[in-house]
Amino acid sequence: QTEKSVVGRFYGNDSIIHGTQYSFNDYIYDYDLDTLNNTLFVQLRGVKRDKYWKDNGLACQINLQSEKLYWQKKTDFKKEYYHQFGNYIFSGDGKSSTLYHTQLGTKLWSANISFCYVNHSNQIGIGYNNNQEGDHLYGIDLLTGKEKWNSQIVREYGWDEIRYIDDSTLLIVANGLHAINIFNGKGWDINLSSGDESYGKAVAGAVGGLALGILTGTYVIPNGNATITSGLISNTLIDSCYIYIASKNRIIKVNKKDGKQFWNQPLSLKNEKAFLALINNQVIVMTKNQVVMVEAKSGKIKSDTTGTTKVSVPVFTQAGLYFLSDNDKLYYQGKIK
Asked: Can you give the pTM of this predicted structure?
């Protein structure tokens, strides 16, 4: 059901901004808006006793321009989930994925792949086959559902980050750094510790959790074991030639074209995730208990606040680096030259 309504006014001339309100018989469980094709994919799910989700519901594709329903499907949310990657709509059960025609809702193909990332312009998806043992990552042609390549990328502790470092190369942070060409699966690998094995092992590919951050284009595989200490890899810093990344016991500088290490500096961050910032040729490594300044060119440690009590987010000024401790004392790290 649709209804025209007034949603606001323009500041310049006080003219009215009109909108369309869409009403549904059940609660909106999830939705994806495709502004390019002007469609709304919405999942509807009822509740029982006003607090528990029902197992069954509907998956609907709506044409926002004509305000008409393209198609709808009955869904058992306990057994399957839906995700829209751009103009691709997939259903999955954690072991396989099915691609549907956007406008007709007809099944185009199915594959034993749980997708982690989709490149829309080149029509390539990547994901794992959860029916097989091991950590084989597959590149899939989205037009046919056929395999284009496969590569080995460990997912024991899940994926921490994924981003492009050039037009065709994805950088995947998962137990280390993995640069992979999306067209042929070739690339380079560097192993780093992404979690703490003393806390158990993770099972990647939890049902319904393979795609996060759709608006940002970043898709992350979650851990299947909530007790594991994971995510101990820092964020990546990337400039025109190099990648910087830190684990709990070292920070490295890597040539992003071939993966060769420029330098490798030992650290002692305990079981804490680090935040990296690159300021005036200094790499700032910061956890909640310490701040380390590393010279970007040589990898030499310039200063280290190990032993300081918990610290706040740093503030960078021309005078130097400042941060607050948990006892409200202001610490000064020295001028960054």
From this structure: 0.71
